[in-house]
Design brief:
- By secondary structure, the chain is mainly α.
- The chain folds into four domains: 8-26 and 100-175, no CATH class; 185-257, Dna Ligase, domain 1; 259-338, no CATH class; 346-486, no CATH class.
- The chain is built from 18 helices and seven strands.
- The strands form three sheets. A three-stranded antiparallel beta sheet has the order 1-2-3, with helices on one face. A two-stranded antiparallel ribbon has the order 4-5.
- A hairpin with a 4-residue loop joins strand 6 and strand 7.
- Helix 14 packs parallel to helix 17.
- The longest helix is centred in the N-terminal third of the chain and has 21 residues, at 131-151.
- It is elongated and about 110 Å long.
- The model is unreliable at 1-20, 22-38, 50-101 and 120-133 (pLDDT under 50).
Amino acid sequence: MTDKSTPPDDDFTDVFGDLPDPRAAQPGADAAPGGQPASRREARAAAQGSDGEPGSDGEPGSAAAQGSDAGQSGARQRTPSETTADGARPAPDAEAPRAAGDAASALTLDELLAADAESVSGADGSGRAGRRRGGKGKWIALGIVVALLAGIGGAGVWAWSTYEPQIRKVLGWQEPTDFEPGLASGEAIVEISEGDNGLAISRTLAAAGVIKTPDALYELLLKMPEQPVFYPGVYTLQTRMTAAAALAALQDPASRSEASTLVREGLTVAQTLPILAEDLGIPLAELEAAVADPSAYSIKADSLEGWLFPARYTFNPGVTATEVVQAMIDRAVTSLNNAGVAVEDRQRILTIASIVQREARFSDDFFKVSRVIENRLQPGNTETFGLLQMDSTAQYGYGEMHDGSVSSSGAALRDPNPWNTYVHPGLPIGPIANPGDLAIEAAAHPVDGPWYYFVTVNLNTGETVFTTTAAEHEAARKQWIQWCRDNPDAGC
């Protein structure tokens, strides 16, 4: 049988028995109507005064009734600050000790929240010392918030806006680190740079309003057994996305905003620039201005012919002509470095590679054509006496490279322009096209062989005959002439 004289040990009893008046949390709250006390504490104080409880003026047991003998054991001497102007004692509740049940109800919301936080670890760090007090503070704080929100709208808003972090901590309401699904809207442009890791990307997304917190995406990545690959670029996402949705968008190529172009091997600068202009949306005049001065890119040459490396390029929106040209030059330098070409030898290798690129058809032939060039450049060459005799160089210098024919006109072969290797021994004054990786590698590392001549005898199959003597070459050349007669529309 329950002893009704002792209240049950129930947090809800404590809460609703000791719950402070919500109006006390509002500045300027008025006292209860009709002159009634505004709180339980005041009600009790009034009841104690009227019933003759110890501490009332003139009643037995009060300090006044006991006299002013300061030496009396247990007596307390009043300080001036504790005496009213007319000499009367303050209200009894101002000095009387609070009952144990009154302690929590008399605390402010700040004190309740602080008390609960203190109880989490306890005085000895064990978490036991303040458990009962903290649990009570938690329920009281909850009761206050509920009362404010339910009964006094303005006070509820004030309490939440003022104490949200503390209330969340006390009640165990953790702030969500991710947006709820279905909130995504609008547009957000984010850029992922080369070398960005998961944490950096997560912070970038948060700064753009894509995800809620800087760690939202990072925490998701930590839970994944395999890490996704992030590609540099500019991405169009939405704001207020979940971390999972943002990750999926970053893996979707459709989210990537880019400008791309493909430049094939063997094209000249004059052929390359219009392609860049069309694909990238850059005015042709700006590209022409960007290639006008090779020294702006630390290139010691009269032209950037050979330096606009052929490849597929992807640029961020808004890329400039200068940035495009620099990227292509950088790629050429990478290829030269990979082939082991010294800095001082780059222009020479690019010149040889450009001829190889225009003359050869198959991979093996690239290295053989490179060997023919090197053999003809040797001082002891008695077959051609230093003349390369490459049709591609004569065509480039005379302006016949783009007419669709592999043969050179007599005028081109006789023209004394500095690229014509039928007239001038040695290499032309510069590259005649933009070579790729294979041509550069072949120019830097020609295969061993005795050849001085070569001719493609079948333009459809690309069959090429390499020979050592002029007589062998003449026989191969007649084979090519016969094939051209049999195939008059084949581009001979």
